[in-house]
């Protein structure tokens, strides 16, 4: 089975080197436009493929993202309707994300931003404590990752509200909301908002001033979905007005974040470089192999996104 590597400005061959070696003999990885016969290629692995990438492969049937999100492939203009798109689902990645979100939730709940600033000024001042039970967390997205994050926050004692597209059963300590009608009720009972939605036409721009206005005053945003979920100017205004006390941002409209961007120096923003939780290379290799085997057997690949829903 031949598999073409499709990425724009990112060395996918170098990134996947260990898995390419491990899969030798079972999958032969070729580079985009390297002279291989494009008609022989039925499978691709990609991360932000060039805009016309898929035009070159008339028999391509499936494209695997190297991340949990597949928007980087779904948004490629040359992606045909009949190409299946696969993403990575890895429990260990969800656990890493839970750790990241918990860190920021406690950062807010325990006033660490203020203590960090006070230390620099040699100010000894106790702010007072709130229990986890007093600080409700809302999670946009109750999927493979959101469910793990919700469970771990609930285990620590945070009241957790979750929001999904369809109704989902939830265990004790987690309250489920769904659909457009459920969103306002969920936000009204939320102080810390975590975004774990996929980027789709419906979710783009969802983190905006109107939504921030529905949270508890002095709320906190943990943005780990995708950059275009956020209306950046609205975040700056919500931070200035005090509607939001702070924000942890891991994903951005433009990555890497340009050096002149105001987020870099904003005192109420903690920023990380799209590093909240990575998929492991081993899980990526396993998904690529399982997808190739499904293709050979004429079976639908596991973890394919629903093209009509966009995730
Ligand atoms: P899933 O597809 O498993 O879950 C998506 C969740 O979002 C589901 O609960 C789904 O609802 C919900 N959803 C989708 N659209 C809507 C909508 N219009 N209204 C309400 N709910 C909606 O995704 P994962 O949990 O695996 O990953 C989520 C996202 O996290 C990824 O797409 C990626 O963008 C981001 N991510 C970021 C990382 C980082 O390092 N910053 C790392 C990994 C992922 P339903 O259950 O009803 O289908
Ligand atoms: C992502 C990932 O989709 O890192 O952001 O898996």
Question: In CATH terms, what is the architecture of the largest domain?
Answer: 3-Layer(aba) Sandwich
Number of domains: 2
CATH class wording of the largest domain: Alpha Beta
Shape verdict: elongated
Oligomer: single chain
Low-confidence stretches: none
CATH topology of the largest domain: Rossmann fold
- Rg over CA atoms: 21 Å
Beta fraction: 15-25%
Major β-sheet, in short?
A: 7 strands, parallel
Give the proportion of residues in helices.
25-40%
Fourth-level CATH superfamily of the largest domain:
NAD(P)-binding Rossmann-like Domain
Major beta sheet, strand line-up: 8-7-6-9-10-11-12
Report on the structure:
It is a single chain. A seven-stranded parallel sheet has the order 8-7-6-9-10-11-12. The chain contains ten helices and twelve strands. Strand 10, helix 9 and strand 11 form a beta-alpha-beta unit. The longest helix has 19 residues. Helix 4 packs across helix 6. It is an alpha/beta fold. It is elongated. It folds into two domains: 108 residues, NAD(P)-binding Rossmann-like Domain (Rossmann fold, 3-Layer(aba) Sandwich), CATH 3.40.50.720; 181 residues, Rossmann fold (3-Layer(aba) Sandwich). The chain starts with a strand and ends in a 14-residue tail after the last helix. Bound molecules: NADPH dihydro-nicotinamide-adenine-dinucleotide phosphate (NDP) and oxalic acid. NADPH dihydro-nicotinamide-adenine-dinucleotide phosphate binds next to helix 6 and strand 7.
